Automatic annotation (TrEMBL):
It comes from the Eukaryota. GO terms for molecular function: carboxylic ester hydrolase activity; fatty acyl-CoA hydrolase activity. Residues 91-216, 284-396 form the HotDog ACOT-type domain. It comes from Aotus nancymaae. This is Acyl-CoA thioesterase 9. Its main location: mitochondrion. Transmembrane segments: none annotated. GO terms for cellular component: mitochondrion. InterPro entries: HOTDOG_ACOT, HotDog_dom_sf, Thioestr_dom. Belongs to the acyl coenzyme A hydrolase family. It is found in: Mitochondrion. One of its GO terms (biological process) is acyl-CoA metabolic process.
Length: 434
C-alpha cells in the first residue's frame, strides 16, 4: 500500500496546474512548456505574502491589532456544519512550487551551509508554509476575497528522507495536496525533489496534520469534505484514517503501558545501577540548551510565532547536540511526531533543551523540549516536543539513563528510532545539514 501511495503521489505531480509558492524565497510563475516539471520564474512572490493576502493580514506589525479586528467580520462565512460545504478532490488542493537555488545566488545564501550543502532547517520552514497553503486551496471560498478560516499546523506526523543528495546549486521542487479530511482537521502529503540533469528526483516525503479554526483563531471550524476519485486516492484516504487512529491510541496510552511491567522494572533497575558500561555516556551529559527572544519578524499570519521558525531552531539545536555527542557531522534521517501543543506569542522567551535519548551503531536519536515564558511571568509552559533521528559518520557511544525520568525518555527514544522507515545503512551524502 505504501508503494502504491508513493507511486500515486508521483503521478499526481504531473497533473498539477496551479503553481504557487510557499516559504521564504519560494517563487511563483508559469510552467516552462519546454521542460516539464521545471518552472520559469516571473515576478516571484513569497508564500507568506500570499498567505497574508488570503487571510487579510497586515504586513506591518503596528497594524496587526486592527487587522485581527477586521477578521471578526468574517464569521458569517463560516459553515454551520460540514454538510453545507461542497466536497473537494485531491487535485483541487494540489500545488507545485519551485525553490530556484540554481538560478538565484542571493536566495542560495539563505539555504547554504559552510559545508556547501542545504540547511534542512530552512526546508522545514518551507514545508510548514506549503502545508498551510495547500489547506487554504482545499477550502477556498470563491465568493469571499478573504478566507474566514485560520489554518494552523497541529502535528508533523512524519518526514522520511529518500536516497538522494541535496546540492545548494540545483533547483528544488515541492509538491503537496490534502490526502485526508476529518471534520475540522486535514492531513497533507508533501514531497520534495531536486533537479539532477533534466529530471527532478525524490528527496523526502512528509506528512503534516493541519487544523482549521474560526476567523479569530479561537475555536474549531469545519472544512470541506474530501472525495477520493480512484483506488490510489482511496488508499491514501484509508491511510489517513489509520494515521488518525494511531495518533488517538498513542494519546490514550502512555509509554509505560507499551512495555510489559516486568521488562520495564528490569530496565529501570538496570539503569539505576549507576555503573557506566564501556564506550557509554550518561544521558545527563548529552544536553544542550538555547534561548530565543521571539521578535515580530518571526510571526505568522495570525501574529503568533511561525511554526516553521520553531522547527528550524529546534532542528539546529538537535543537530548541534548530535554533532557534539558523536564527534562528527551528523545527517538527518527522519523527523516525526512533532506536536504543536500551545502557540508561542510574540515577545515570549523560548527555551529549547536538547538531549540524546537513544543511540545504536551510527544512529543518534535526539529529543528537543520547547517551553516559553512571557516577559511578565516566571512560569514556563511546554509548547512542543521534537524528535529527530540522525546518522553520524562513525559509530557513536551508547547512551545510558540514571533516573526513572531518563529511563522513560530512553524507551520513548527507542520507540521513535524503531519507527524510522528508512533503510538501515545510508550513505552520508544522501542527507542534509542544518
Amino acid at each position: 500500500p505504501r508503494l502504491a501511495a508513493l507511486s500515486f503521489l508521483r503521478r499526481l505531480c504531473a497533473l498539477g496546474k496551479g503553481q504557487l509558492t510557499p516559504g521564504r524565497g519560494l517563487t511563483q510563475g508559469p510552467q516552462n512548456p519546454k521542460k516539464q516539471g521545471i518552472f520559469h520564474i516571473q515576478e516571484g512572490k513569497h508564500v507568506r505574502d500570499k498567505l497574508r493576502e488570503i487571510v487579510g493580514a497586515s504586513t506591518n506589525w503596528r497594524d496587526h491589532v486592527k487587522a485581527m479586528e477586521e477578521r471578526k467580520l468574517l464569521h458569517s462565512f463560516l459553515a454551520k456544519s460540514q454538510d453545507g460545504l461542497p466536497p473537494r478532490r485531491m487535485k483541487d488542493s494540489y500545488i507545485e512550487v519551485l525553490l530556484p537555488l540554481g538560478s538565484e545566488p542571493e536566495l542560495r545564501e539563505k539555504y547554504l551551509t559552510v559545508q556547501n550543502t542545504v540547511r534542512f532547517g530552512r526546508i522545514l520552514e518551507d514545508l510548514d508554509s506549503l502545508g498551510v497553503l495547500v489547506c487554504y486551496m482545499h477550502n477556498k471560498i470563491h465568493s469571499a476575497k478573504t478566507s474566514p478560516l485560520s489554518i494552523v499546523t497541529a502535528l508533523v506526523d512524519k518526514i522520511d528522507m529518500c536516497k538522494k543528495s541535496l546540492s545548494p546549486e540545483q533547483d528544488i521542487k515541492f509538491s503537496g495536496h490534502v490526502s485526508w479530511v476529518g471534520k475540522t482537521s486535514m492531513e497533507v502529503k508533501m514531497q520534495m525533489f531536486q533537479l539532477h540533469g533534466d529530471e527532478f528526483c525524490p528527496v523526502l516525503d512528509a506528512t503534516f496534520v493541519m487544523v482549521a479554526r474560526d476567523s479569530e483563531n479561537k475555536g474549531p471550524a469545519f472544512v470541506n469534505p474530501l472525495i477520493p476519485e480512484s483506488p490510489e486516492e482511496e488508499e491514501l484516504f484509508r491511510q489517513g484514517e489509520l494515521n488518525k487512529g494511531r495518533r488517538i491510541a498513542f494519546q490514550l496510552h502512555i509509554v509505560t503501558e507499551k512495555w510489559p511491567p516486568n521488562v520495564l522494572s528490569t530496565l529501570i533497575q538496570y539503569f539505576r545501577s549507576r555503573v557506566l558500561p564501556p564506550n557509554a555516556v550518561w544521558m545527563e551529559n548529552s544536553k544542550l540548551k538555547s534561548l530565543e527572544i521571539c521578535h515580530p519578524q518571526e510571526r505568522n499570519i495570525f501574529n503568533r510565532i511561525f511554526g516553521g521558525f520553531l522547527m528550524r531552531k529546534a532542528y539546529e539545536l538537535a543537530w548541534a547536540t548530535a554533532c557534539s555527542f558523536g564527534g562528527s557531522r551528523p545527517f538527518v534521517v527522519a523527523v516525526d511526531d512533532i506536536m504543536f501543543q500551545k502557540p508561542v506569542e510574540v515577545g515570549s522567551l523560548l527555551f529549547l533543551s536538547s538531549q540524546v535519548c537513544f543511540t545504536q551503531n551510527n544512529y543518534i536519536q535526539v529529543r528537543v523540549h520547547s517551553e516559553v515564558a512571557s516577559l511578565q511571568e516566571k512560569t514556563h509552559t511546554t509548547t512542543n516536543v521534537f524528535h529527530f533521528t540522525f546518522m553520524s559518520e562513525k559509530e557513536v557511544p551508547l547512551v545510558f539513563p540514571k533516573t526513572y525520568g531518563e529511563s522513560m525518555l530512553y524507551l520513548d527514544g527507542q520507540r521513535h528510532f524503531n519507527s524510522m522507515s528508512g533503510p538501515a545503512t545510508l550513505r552520508k551524502d544522501y542527507f542534509l545539514e542544518p
